[in-house]
Amino acid sequence: MSADTAMVAERPIHLVVVELHHHSELIRNLAQVVVHAPFTLSLVTIPDVFEKTGLSIADNEEWLSVYLKCQDESVAGFLERSAPVFASADLMYFNTARHFWKELADSRFSAPAILRVHNVHCDLAPASHFNRPVVNALSILSHLIRKVWIGGEWRDKKRFLNRINYFMFPNQAITDYVLANSWVEEERILSPVLPFGFLGESGELDDGAEQVSRPVTIAVTGKVTNSKKDFRLVYLALKRCLDRLDLPVRLILLGNAGGKQAAPILADFRSLESDKFILEYSTDYVPAEEFEEKVQRVDFLVAPIKVDTHFRKYHEVYGKSKMSGIENDILLHRKPSLVISGYDVGSPLDRVVEYFEPDADSLAESLVRWINGRVFEQRKSEFLSMDAYRPEVIAERFYQLCKTITE
What is the mean pLDDT of the segment spanning 126-141? Predict the structure, then answer.
């Protein structure tokens, strides 16, 4: 794989990407975008993240280099060993900064740096956003003593953030929220020209006439727990509407359903199994290849997001201070979605979305309308007018931004 030939005359930019935590899917998406522009990419990460990206060094050796932390190596030692890579960078790109604030603050880099922020309240305004401070007073106090006062987390985080030249947030809504609260100086905030996802290929199965008679397949993405999604709401909605549907429904849970919290969720859905309802799930991590195969069979997604959530001890709000993965899933797989009200996907994705209220009756009505009226088929045509999310278009915008930063 190589950069598009139309851009070979452009100055190549060496982008050094640091990912010490997780978000392998975002690294994979980033790589699939920047290949369309004159970038060389050095990925500094941990073995588990790289393995889950599904990227191959052999297939991408012209533009991709990978540097992995050794098993017994400290993060500080790994970052020090990576100093020559950092020194060669035109631009540093920190994909996730969640822990290791001291190590990151002490790392040796001098190129302009971009930080992707995933949890705005935790990272930029922690003192005013504790999660349920009255109920959680003792655990918050323990956190403040151990992590903040003794561990120096806030001090080290501030040192690292002071070294960051530019911040990029997942979408415009979150960018506007940060600007409105003046948590970062306006001149340090970049336009979100590099979304976490991009418009993928259609990936439709060619069933021909069978499509109108086969079960309608819906899916919920993400780990199967009730901490961030309301699976009980989906169960209750299906229970109320299955007898009103013209076709059987297959529900695929596109995430790990092997944890203890998944057991009661699976028990609920299993109680619905009949000639009208089929359940599919996996009790282990779903590899990228298996995920792709499953998602091809999906007609539309359901996103029962719990908008009010938390990250560690801090309150976050999906759609305001952090982003759900549903927007990436919609784009990458061209799947329309039912999304809970309160989570605004913004334009133009709202053309392939219908919102439901956070109650079973509302979701049940949406399911009946979308399945019996095959509304999901009508919504799919809207993806044809989303060229701005094509990877080559995103790559060009991001390249021009990076060129401006590094000139």
Answer: 91
Q: What pLDDT digit, counting tens, does each position of 151-191 carry?
A: 989 999 999 999 999 999 999 999 999 999 999 999 999 99
237-250 pLDDT, tens per residue?
999 999 999 999 99
Bridging pattern class, strands 314-317 and 308-311: antiparallel
Burial class (CB in 10 A: 0-12, 13-18, 19+), 382: middle
Helices (H), 13-119: 24-34, 47-53, 75-81, 83-87, 101-106
Residues 81 and 139 in one domain: yes
State the burial class of residue 73 (Cβ atoms within 10 Å of its Cβ: 0-12, 13-18, 19+). middle
**Position 306: which residue type?**
K
Tell me the average pLDDT across 116-138.
Answer: 93
- Structure tokens that stand for 373 in this block: 């009226």
Segment (H or E) for 339: strand 337-340
d(CA 13, CA 132): 45
Which whole-number Å values give the CA distances from 25 to 1, 28, 29, 93, 219, in the listed order? 19, 5, 6, 16, 18
* pLDDT, tens digit, 9 for 90 and up, residues 75-102: 999 999 999 999 999 999 999 998 899 9
Cβ proximity of 16 and 83 under 8 Å? no
Same domain, 36 and 104: yes
The domain of 327 spans 208-387
Q: Write phi, then psi, for 404 (nearest 5 degrees).
A: -65, -40
**Residue 159 shares a structural domain with residue 298:** no
Domain membership of residue 44 (yes or no) is yes
42 sits in which H/E element: strand 39-45
Predicted TM-score (pTM) of this structure: 0.89
The per-residue b/e assignment along 216-243, b for 16 or more CB within 10 angstroms, e otherwise, is bbbbbbbbbbeebbbbebbbbbbbbbbe
Residues in the chain: 407
Secondary structure percentages of the chain, helix, strand, coil, to 5: 45, 20, 35
Share of the chain above pLDDT 90, in %: 78
Q: How many domains does the chain have?
A: 2
Residue 8 above 80 pLDDT? no
Residues 191, 238: one domain?
no
306-343 pLDDT, tens per residue?
A: 999 999 999 999 999 999 989 999 999 999 999 999 99
